[in-house]
Design goal:
Elements lengths: L4 H9 L3 E5 L2 H8 L14 E5 L4 H10 L3 E4 L10 E5 L6 H29 L4 H22 L2 H5 L14 H12 L7 H8 L6 H8 L7 H14 L5 H13 L7 H4 L18 E4 L2 H6 L1 H13 L4 E2 L10 H6 L2 H18 L3 E4 L2 H15 L6 E4 H10 L10 E5 L13 H8 L4 E3 L18 H4 L1 H16 L6 E4 L2 H13 L5 E4 H15 L1
Parallel strand pairs: 2-4, 3-4, 5-6, 5-7, 7-8, 9-10, 9-11, 11-12
Antiparallel strand pairs: 1-2
Helix pairs in contact: 2-7, 4-5, 7-10, 14-23, 18-19, 21-22
Amino acid sequence: MKLSREAVDKLREVEGVEAVLTDPEDLYVYAREKPFSSSPRYIPVAVVKVKPNAVEQVANLAVKLGLTPIIRGEGELNQPKLLVIDSFTTPDLDQLEEEAKAAEAKMATAKEQALSEILKTGINTPRRFSIALEGILRSRQPELCKECKVCTGYCTVAPFFNYVETWSSKGRLMLIHGYKAGELKPTPKLAEVVYSCTLCGACFMRCLHGGFPNLETFRAIMAARRDLAKEGLAPESFKAMAENVSSLGNPFASTPDMRWMWLEEVEPAIKVGGKAEILYWVGCTTGIRFPEVAKAVVELLRIGGVDFTVLGEPEGCCGDPLFLAGMWEEAEKAALKVLEVIKKGGYSTLVTACAGCYHAFSIHYPELLGIELPCEVLHVSQLLERMLKENKLTPGRLEVKVSYHDPCELGRLSGVYEPPRKVLRSIEGLELREPRFNRERSRCCGGGGGLWAYKNQVSMDAASLRLTKDIQPLNVDKLVTACPACYMNFKYTALDRSLPVEVIDLAELVLEAVQVEQKNG
């Protein structure tokens, strides 16, 4: 049954109704939102997203329209003409944390029970013990997942789609399941939902702690994007980006000479493309949008006496935006070009200040393409930590209060947490104030996964929420990050929304401290 246009209009007229959902993608998600459950007997004819005070009125109207209303999560889809009423509101993350801890406690109890049951069976070989334990835990995990709302609550973009489940991390996984199982057609809306994600990985962190190793939702979304791109359903902004990388070597449609104009401002001039121990990989976003960061890195390398070079025009794109867009064949072409250039240069170390480039080189290349670069790959925070330890850099005193934002591709997705913090703590007088959610639980700035270009308003809304809720209450002087995407989204959002937050890159702040010492010394 399809809900009539007249019925839809009547439902929309009720005060407190925020959306009436009738698309197949929405109905699929709400019918199957409990993972691991069997396929429902019936699909709802509509889902009505409402404010809590409108639930009763919508339910009464549904009855008048000949429909059977059920509250989301409280009823079974066991009859036709069902209308699901969704009054889910913005979750309290403190409450979600408590729920996550409760989930962990349940898993701990399950493990104890499993151990007891296994011991009773008399199993005495390590291999059979492991298999039995895994089987018993697997039988308990689905029930835990059915009760949990954590992944939806942690989704970076869900708040800006009014927490309609379709646009949450769990909703995306449901859609991907339906698409891969042949239960849903690959439609433009399905593609829009799958691409409206920052690929930050925040949604799976608590699942990992709750007993779900390797349930990394962002990888499933990346794989789905790959399949959708092959079917020609990648959004136009992503297609244009791929064409720019292919023809111009960067995703921004900037000419190569614009990318390297900052080199003219560096004195004395640095060698470009020459033999050196270390290759400084600048990256597209840094070179084009934030040359001040590139110049700060160059100056720090010089002060530290590092033998380094930059590639200039042959640098091209690392391919990270292509991986995120699902265009893995194009990403492989970019990676092979990088491999050829690195081999030719014979560098022992590649260092970059871009979290995306670092993630591509250290994670995407070996895991998705089987490509290993013939040199050590470091993020600039790791190199700065090493230089400080070897006394190649001496920062002076800075009386400043800062907060450090963990970039998703550097922190949660690559595991680099301590080097940036150790670098910041090496600066005398600096006070580091951590946001409530940090390290692996850091909340995404909203600028990743291609979302900045695809849905800019959503991207900036996410950054605004981080700045106002997580950073401003800390009363810091500066927000420090180590990723040009975070730098861009936070800085532009602060300017656009008139938020009094100064955003600075890690390299810029360290250079400021080093120059203070040079001046005083």
